[in-house]
Amino acid sequence: MFIESIKENWRYENANDDAAVKLWNAKADYFGSYDLEEVKKERFIQIIKENNLIDKKGTILDVGCGAGKYSTALSDDCFKIVGTDLSPKMIESAQKRAKEYELRDTLASLGKKPKIVITDSQVFAKVSADTPKDILLTSFSILFARYKGDLEELVKGAKAIESLNDGDTVLLSEGCTHHRQCDDIGRVKIPRWIMQHCGKRLNFEFSSGVEFPYDLSKYKMIVHCGGCTLNEREMKYRVKCAQDQNIPFTNYGILIAYTQGILKRTLEPFSDISCLLEE
């Protein structure tokens, strides 16, 4: 239904709940496009703070919260905020925007800066942007590579993406057999990011669980998961198989960081390894 038609149906004499919900649902994307830093400068927010109307121990009830711009702007100044709105789309937008600022707000609210932030590799770009440069950053899969793999070998392996050509085959291997999602990281996201980075038409094959090919000769590159379900012996075996056959081997987190241009930063906790990127 067009906005003007919704407005007509929502006139006082014609008001009804369905028309109201449709109106505000239709405006959810617009209201959710606010700039948080600009909202914090609004006079309304300043009046609340100047008059000490809220404190760190208090709870705020935001009735008709819309896309949550005021709730989000005040979230650092209270213990809890509860938002309500008749529009489901507005609530969805508010929840989405709140999550976008969650890490940044958490870091800002801490009395002492953390030494390091460890994240899921799939959100590397966002977390890197929200984490100050003086705080170390890495991911679980990079830590796993250090703990029970061969981080140096996997960092070297990530560079193989630059040598891929049309028609080459890449193996995506996972240690577990989890239920596949519609935008699965191993079968959808990683292949997409690889092709976006190198601009080549590639073939992808997949293995999972205990299945790991003995003959790797047809692959130009192997990208493995972090290996959280595999023991150290199995991970080192797979890396060694690739080494013996001269096949570059890396893992999800290292490859994602490489394609997003932040690998050097994510390796800063390991000074002996980060220097490899300068070679």
Q: Would you count the extended β strands for me? A: 8
Give the percentage of residues in beta strands.
Answer: 5-15%
What is the mean pLDDT?
87
Helicity, as a percent range: 40-55%
Strands across the major sheet, in which order? 6-5-7-8
Question: What does this entry look like structurally?
Answer:
The structure is a single chain. The chain is 46% helix and 13% strand. By secondary structure, it is of the alpha/beta class. α6 (69-74) links the parallel β1 and β2 (80-84). It is elongated, with a radius of gyration of 24 Å. The model has no long low-confidence stretch (mean pLDDT 87).
Task: Provide tags for this entry.
about 280 residues, alpha/beta, four-stranded parallel beta sheet, two-stranded parallel sheet, 16 helices, about 45% helix
Describe how the helices and strands are arranged.
Blueprint: H1 3-9, H2 17-26, H3 28-31, H4 36-40, H5 43-50, E1 59-63, H6 69-74, E2 80-84, H7 88-100, H8 102-109, E3 116-119, H9 124-130, E4 136-139, H10 140-148, H11 151-158, E5 169-174, H12 185-198, E6 203-208, E7 221-224, H13 232-244, E8 249-251, H14 252-259, H15 263-266, H16 271-274
Parallel strand pairs: 1-2, 3-4, 5-6, 5-7, 7-8
Helix pairs in contact: 1-2, 12-14
